[in-house]
Design goal:
Distance between the termini: 69 Å
Number of domains: 3
Helix content: 40-55%
CATH architecture of the largest domain: Alpha-Beta Complex
Strand content: 5-15%
Length: about 700
């Protein structure tokens, strides 16, 4: 056999994704292409021009309308809709079309036209098949729901994330999904924004088949011929055709929604529940109400601020692109933070060695990782592979192999320096040394380090699996290559990098500390901890400062507070004696089962139900010191711009997302109003509330 340069993989590459016949009648538009095969099945392929991901813009929908007209005249026996993008089917609507809109009537007109196009697809009198791979979200899933069959391929994930943008489905999802599957399951999907992977979607009846790529062509033929078995609706569906049944279920849904998304801040879940309660079973009425409700929500402050948060997320995410060259990570310190960092890196395909002087700590960390993988990874193979990549390392042999070493030992300068001294001679010449310090300036830690250019801060937040942000802490001797690799590493492990300068507390902890310390002062004044937490939650925080302090760890809070009080020339209350006593006695918070709250065996705080309601001033007293510090950090150049600061505070602390971030909230409320409020608090409580001079220029930095 002659030797050629053509590999078998190059030969098979065109078939790696089934995109219809290789030859036949073809029409190419800007974003879509139509291919009709000899079997008279038409493949309509979406490949949005100049974009890495398919989204539904007005232009894409207008071309779909044109394409559907062509299909009607082609004598097709069936229609297949599929994406040519490897990442997935359609990631939803193009959010750029929604940003900054203010005219509800204009939105309603645009949405009505979009519905007409999707309805045209649903009305075709031939079998229509959506082949779904990767992400199929929002408007993409709504388009798939208008097809008669849905086939999920491989790792497909289906869902409606609109609630995360302060919206509900707006392109037919509310009435098509509740008619297709169990209405309670349908509402749960839309109210939570959670996705369903292929097998789960098949079990729900959301898709008709869950297959591997090699079976796509046969599955399409089975659907078009009518041979594919389907399961539509559920035993519960007829019951919820009656309004009284929907009313009972709706009450329960509202109660559940209120626990996670208070109506005063997040109206979308309640509007969705209203839609289903009032119009469930009447598709035409529900469609009309959906368009109106979606349009009203879209122009509201909550949706526009959450859309802003979406773009903050995308901006941080884009800064994590590039190649880090990091394949092996060595983590030193198997406590809660170090162990969870190691476990997370292993889920993202990296080889990880985990070391600690305490062998039992390593064993506990591996145990926690196994529990995490059991919950989050969908197959036994994935769980096995992740555990194989996570290796206990009692001898420290991983140091010499690692591309990145992450130090996650106690928040103590001397301990961290001793670790650095021990590992520095064993590291590869191009390896990066990262510290997970939450507050210690890197200028302090780098002393006597022979390669300060390869030292960087990688400050993760707890819990690692849920908190997306990582502060990339720079110092004046860190090389640009090190910082670039650190950002790219964040992209590899699916985290958002926020570049900050080395300074006491960096950005997040420096801004968060005044918030927590003020809560401690209010405790000393006799205010119930439940009342303090409720004041913050009423403002929109995901949890109050007392519970947050327990979650962070009172030992960490104490160390950060001590360091900031010592290093910063800013007024700060005295550290309460009871905080020191609690830490010394081991009552360090949730991780110890007892801190400011006592925790049950599931890690939930036990709270008194009869605490007094917070006063109107309490939220300002807690939140404005945080905003004041954010303005100070901007003025001092700790963070380079408003967007990075807002994104960091939202994705690391959960700062009320519907407010768009602390700086955005300050601009919306008005600098003058905040300065006046700070001055009133300064008169009542002391100089720690003195407005920073940065407020004078806030209005000019928009």
């Amino acid at each position: 056999m002659p030797v050629t340069n053509t590999s078998v993989w190059n030969t098979l590459a065109p078939r790696n994704m089934e995109l219809g016949p290789q030859s036949g009648s073809t029409k190419i538009l800007t974003h879509w292409r139509l291919i009709k095969g000899d079997d008279d099945i038409v493949w309509l392929i979406l490949d949005r021009a100049n974009e890495s991901t398919n989204t539904l813009s007005e232009a894409v929908l207008a071309e779909l309308d044109t394409a559907l007209g062509d299909v009607a005249g082609m004598g097709a026996k069936g229609l297949v809709i599929r994406s040519a993008k490897k990442a997935g089917f359609i990631a939803g609507a193009d959010i750029r079309d929604f940003r900054g809109v203010t005219d509800m009537r204009e939105v309603e007109t645009r949405m009505t036209r979009a519905h007409e196009i999707v309805d045209r697809l649903a009305a075709l009198d031939i079998p229509t098949v959506a082949v779904l791979h990767g992400h199929c979200l929002g408007g993409g899933l709504e388009l798939a729901l208008a097809c008669k069959y849905r086939i999920a391929v491989g790792d497909a994930k289906l869902g409606f994330p609109e609630v995360l943008l302060g919206l509900h489905p707006g392109l037919g999802g509310t009435f098509r999904l509740t008619a297709l599957i169990d209405p309670i399951e349908a509402m749960t999907m839309m109210l939570t924004g959670r996705t369903a992977h292929a097998k789960k979607a098949k079990a729900l009846g959301l898709v008709d088949a869950a297959i591997e790529e090699r079976h796509v062509e046969n599955a399409v033929r089975a659907a078009v011929s009518g041979a594919m078995k389907t399961r539509r609706g559920s035993l519960k569906s007829p019951v919820f055709g009656f309004r009284p049944a929907r009313q009972i279920a709706a009450r329960q849904m509202r109660a559940q929604a209120e626990k996670h998304a208070p109506k005063q801040h997040y109206p979308a879940p309640y509007r969705l529940i209203d839609l289903w309660e009032e119009h469930g079973g009447d598709a035409k009425a529900m469609q009309k109400a959906e368009i109106r409700s979606f349009s009203e929500l879209l122009v509201g402050d909550t949706a526009q601020n959450l859309i802003r948060v979406f773009f903050l997320h995308e901006k941080l995410k884009s800064s994590a692109k590039g190649e880090s060259g990091i394949r092996h990570v060595h983590v030193i310190g198997a406590g809660m933070m170090g162990g969870d960092i190691a476990a997370w890196c292993a889920t993202r395909g990296l080889s990880v060695t985990l070391a600690d002087l305490d062998r039992n700590a390593v064993a506990r960390a591996i145990g926690r990782a196994a529990e995490f993988y059991e919950k989050k990874l969908h197959s036994g193979i994935e769980r096995r592979d992740a555990l194989d990549r996570l290796m206990p390392d009692f001898a420290g042999s991983g140091i010499a192999k690692a591309d990145l070493i992450i130090e996650a030992v106690a928040e103590n300068t001397d301990i961290k320096r001793r670790v650095f001294d021990a590992i520095a001679p064993k590291m590869k010449k191009n390896a990066i040394l990262a510290t997970n310090t939450s507050s210690i300036p890197l200028e302090v830690l780098r002393q006597d380090l022979p390669f300060a250019d390869r030292l960087v801060g990688l400050h993760f937040f707890n819990p690692v699996a849920k908190m997306e942000l990582v502060e990339i802490v720079a110092h004046d001797q860190a090389s640009q290559a090190t910082l670039d690799r650190a950002r790219a590493f964040c992209g590899t492990i699916g985290k958002l990098p926020a570049p900050v300068k080395s300074a006491p507390g960096f950005l997040v902890n420096r801004a968060l500390t005044p918030y927590l310390v003020e809560a401690f002062v209010m405790l000393d004044e006799g205010t119930a901890k439940e009342t303090i937490d409720r004041a913050a939650k009423d403002f929109g925080m995901p949890m109050g400062p007392i519970e947050l302090a327990d979650r962070v760890g009172l030992d960490i809070c104490l160390e950060v507070a001590r360091m900031l009080k010592e290093k910063l020339d800013e007024p700060m209350p005295e550290i309460p004696a009871w905080l020191v006593q609690k830490v010394e006695s081991g009552e360090t918070g949730r991780k110890a089962g007892k801190g400011l709250y006592i925790y049950d065996d599931k890690g939930r705080p036990k709270k008194a139900s009869d605490a007094a309601a917070p006063s109107n001033e309490m939220a300002d007293r807690l939140v404005l010191p945080m905003l004041n510090t954010c303005i100070r950090c901007l003025r001092e150049g700790i963070v380079e711009d408003d967007d990075t600061l807002d994104g960091a505070m939202i994705f690391a602390t959960g700062f009320a997302p519907f407010r768009g971030g602390p700086i955005h909230y300050a601009r919306t409320r008005g600098a003058a109003d905040i300065v006046a409020a700070l001055q009133r608090l300064e008169q009542q409580h002391g100089p720690r509330f003195a407005p920073d001079e940065g407020w004078n220029t806030l209005g000019t930095n928009a």
